[in-house]
Design goal:
The complex is a heterodimer of chains A (about 375) and B (about 475). The longest helix of chain A has 23 residues. In chain A, about 55% of the residues are buried. By secondary structure, chain A is an alpha/beta fold. Chain A starts with 5 loop residues before the first helix and ends in a 15-residue tail after the last helix. In chain A, helix 9 packs parallel to helix 10 and helix 11 packs across helix 12. In chain A, the strands form two sheets. In chain A, strands 1, 4, 5, 6, 7, 8, 9, 10 and 11 form a nine-stranded mixed β-sheet that branches. In chain B, helix 2 packs antiparallel against helix 15, helix 3 packs antiparallel against helix 6 and helix 14 runs antiparallel to helix 15. In chain B, a hairpin with a 2-residue loop joins strand 2 and strand 3. Chain B starts with a helix and ends with a helix. Chain B is built from 22 helices and five strands. Classes of the chains: A alpha/beta (about 375), B mainly alpha (about 475). Chain B: Pfam families: DUF1800 (PF08811). Chain B: This is DUF1800 domain-containing protein.
Amino acid sequence: MFILDRRMLLRGTAGLGALSLAVPGGLFAQEVGNKRLFVIILRGAADGLSVAAPLGDPAYEAARGPWLETYADARKLDGFFVLHPALEKVGALYAKGEALVAHAVATDYRERSHFDAQNLLETGGTRAYGERDGWLNRLAGMLAPGGSALALAPTVPLILRGDAPVSSYAPSRLPDASELLTERIEDLYADDPQLAALWQQAQATRDMAGDLASANLRNAQQAGTLAASLMEGDSGARILTLDLNGWDSHANQVGQIARRLAQLDVLLGAFHESMGTLWPDTMVAVVTEFGRTVARNGTNGTDHGTGGAAFLLGGSVRGGRVMADWPGLAAAQLYEGRDLRPTMSLEVLLAGALAEHFALDPALAMRTLFPGRTARAGKGFMRT
Amino acid sequence: MTDAAIALNRFGLGYRRGSPTPDNPRRWLLAQLERYDPVPPELAGRQNGATILTDLYRNIVERRRLMRQGSGKDMAMEGMESAEDMRDDPQLAEVRRNIREGRQVMIADIGRRMRIAVASQAPFAERLVHFWSNHFAVSAGRVQVASVAGSHEFEAIRPHIGGTFAELLKSAALHPAMLTYLDQAQSFGPSSPLMQRRRNRPNVRQGGLNENLAREILELHTLGVNGGYGQEDVREFAKALTGWTLSARRKGRRAIDISPGVVFFPPLHEPGQPRILGKTYAQEGHRKALAVLDDLSAHPATARYVATKLARHFAGDMPPEPLVDRLAANFLETGGNLPALYRTLVESPEAWAPEPQKFRQPIEWATAALRATVEELPDDRRLAGMLRELGQLPWAPPSPAGYDDIAASWAGPDALVRRVEVAERMARNLPARDVEALAQSMFPGALSPKTGQAIARAESGEQAMALLLVAPEMMRR
């Protein structure tokens, strides 16, 4: 059997047939050193106004009054915002200056479809379906040849799809296929570039997961530990992405949000702990497709909105602060009379943070990851 | 691929063991539309969704009463998203039991669905059932939907795949499972009689409009996201839909029976004449929403959107434009007559391109593997477990958009490994004779030399079978 070098495979330099078309970042390849990036997408539109509640805004109580009990003993982020109490571990990182909250942010998307919004969030385009690959894949291309990228999922989500070779992995409860069959399959797929490439990538990633290959992704603790283990060591993934579903809180939002945030918190806590000495070189970005309406709807939930919140965490993130040019929640200040008005571009934020993290040229990062915009990448996200 | 292999695999659900090779593939497909049985024996005696929901809500109401007596807390059904958080509350053992029972009903329904698909002599029609069920997706991602997800397909989709799109839409979008899934049961007209009364009683929980169902009907079921509607249309449509609710939630003489499990409750209905896509709807009561749905069904954007999805399902992730045009034109000409649409599809040369056009989704792959090899399916629990591990449980997509229908969403390294693992286990329990002949029947005239060789050279019948089940021919259609 052809002995696979998993490091080579994760970097996509082995003979991967059709999928190993030229790595697009070749020209501006960067030495990424030890830098790691973990992107978590909260699918379904997490309510930023619950995650980091603007208690300092008098209109907040008017809109969300019956739900404020949750925040009675919540951690103050500053004189204006408080953090949802389920985010205990995130709060501790915030206190250490290693978590940054960005508020009133949004992508360029201004309608209210989850699916279009997620498309924009993942492709980095200016309109839905305008780009065919994901910005995280383009980032992997910029980091080549050291930028191996992995989705913690059975298949590769759009954000990571594209020309740069990437892989996906999710622990399975099935017993592994026998070695004998595995060898034969390599031969069976020899003339089929797509299947051959998928098969080789899968074999390589399974080797890396080692003992955690039977971890349960629905268990947040195990998912966080597994994520960290896939990023460990020289051959670990430099870029990892994971989806968390279930944020579309149209009804009885209070309990739903608290449970989801608690899971996110456990996952991030386990990840942080397991990254150990790599933490100073690690950045975690937590993003969602849009925010939710300021007002409660008729079913104790909220509907699709616009401005929301995002997190950056990491040992070198200049955290312990809320970045927001707060637009206010009074009726006249809302976007289309119902949503938190976005005052910061998520693309600008991400391009700036990633440029600083990976030491990329900010202008190049902006135009590669989020093309078609005139805005410049943001700055000041990392401690120097 | 030969025409016979295309008919079996691209249009059908794969070769059924013991069946002859279709000699006239197009006629074979069209004849299935006549042979199709909307209520196969597998579904006989099954409890309907209306009864399941009525029992469930009776339980919830009783529990709320007990809780008010006990701790003074209120616990809504919609709050029971995650059982583990409720471990400590003794009252909530009941909630957990409901969740568990809901899952059991769903698993039994998954068994029914798979048995119907595996044994079917009308596999093209069954594929269409799965297609429409995914177009009008409900998801057990919301726990209260689990017990009625199967009901939705069996009661709202199956009987209507051979009628008009308008009938199918009304049946699917207004089934109790959909009303539950997309929060319609809790949408109250802001100026409805009931809300007006509640305003004077501040201690009573207030309600209001919920746009979820209206939005998803426009975006996902009919016009499509670029179909030319705006936020105001969504809101007006949501108003037209107020009053449509579950019989399990609203009883009494004011509730008007519509269909099993569904009533129209006038006190919730928003008065007035909503204006949607430039047209004013002056109909009374429940007729208002029905009139909107009829108009949406006849809209050119709907024709285009449905044509694109159908073409994508059969003729490739990027469906040929002439095929989409032809299907859309046929849809408009016939007023959304579905059999005419299927016929147009089958008679279109674009759908018979000899190269495989689609990467099989996990359920498609598992169904094809089982059809080719077994008489008796594994028990429901193992079947559901297998589909979950393959990455696609029926009726559990991540969103109301349903499961994706493009290769990029399914052709992942890990997804492939799982198929190999399942195939190896499956092969272990199968009689391993005549695998080469089986391969010829599954892909008549279309088996690659490479696969033929791999099967011939396998070291055991069992290994030959496993290789056949994961061969490139099995992965695409």
